[in-house]
Amino acid sequence: MTAVEIRRDTLSPAERSARMALVRSRDTKPELRVRRFLHASGLRYRLHQRVGTARPDLVFAARRTVVFVHGCIWHRHPDPACPLTRTPKSRIDFWTAKFAENVARDARQQTALQADGWRVLVIWECQTNSQARLEALARAIREK
């Protein structure tokens, strides 16, 4: 396939819509992995509680700490070695703009939370499979 060729979607618009409707924003597998680990570690939290203009995945109000569990593809994991950060082959202009807005929104939310005195921690989807990363997250939450 050359750079000029455009890949056609193999699904009809209705099938594509149905498939995209299955993409969850809450209770994702990476988020559930983090929640299970932190709960087993004795840490208690609130889910998706509004803090300012943001809705972090986990809120530790007494510790003034919030945790975002970011999907690598949707939030554009900046690690070049991340195998999950990829861009769809069709509608590249749409996806580039969509991902750029997601990254900009994340930055705005994190800046606002930090300005209000909250600690913001981010764990990426690809890191949720690592026991060491989850332990480091738990340590970071306990630190004050």
List the helices and strands and how they pair.
Blueprint: H1 13-21, H2 29-40, E1 46-47, E2 58-60, E3 65-70, H3 72-75, H4 92-115, E4 119-124, H5 131-142
Parallel strand pairs: 3-4
Antiparallel strand pairs: 1-2, 2-3
Question: What does this molecule look like?
Answer:
The chain has 144 residues and is an alpha+beta fold. The chain has a single domain, classed as Endonuclease, Chain A (3-Layer(aba) Sandwich). It has five helices and four strands, in the order ααβββααβα. The protein has a four-stranded mixed sheet with strand order 1-2-3-4, with helices on both faces. The longest helix has 24 residues. It is globular, with a radius of gyration of 17 Å. The model has no long low-confidence stretch (mean pLDDT 90).
Q: What is the compact description of this entry?
A:
The protein is α+β, with helices and mostly antiparallel strands.
What would the keywords be for this entry?
four-stranded mixed β-sheet; 5 helices; globular; Endonuclease, Chain A; alpha+beta; 144 residues; 4 strands; 42% helix
Task: Note the main sheet.
Answer: 4 strands, mixed
Spatial separation of the terminal alpha carbons:
53 Å
CATH H level, superfamily name: VSR Endonuclease
Portion of residues within helices: 40-55%
Q: Order of strands across the biggest sheet?
A: 1-2-3-4
Alpha-beta classification = alpha+beta
The secondary-structure element order is HHEEEHHEH
The assigned CATH architecture is 3-Layer(aba) Sandwich
Shape: globular
What count of helical segments does DSSP give?
5
Low-confidence runs: none
Mean pLDDT over the residues: 90
CATH topology: Endonuclease, Chain A
Evaluate the radius of gyration.
17 Å
Task: Give the tally of β-strands.
Answer: 4
**Whole-number total of structural domains:** 1
Q: State the CATH class.
A: Alpha Beta
Kindly estimate the percentage of residues that lie in beta strands according to DSSP. Answer: 5-15%
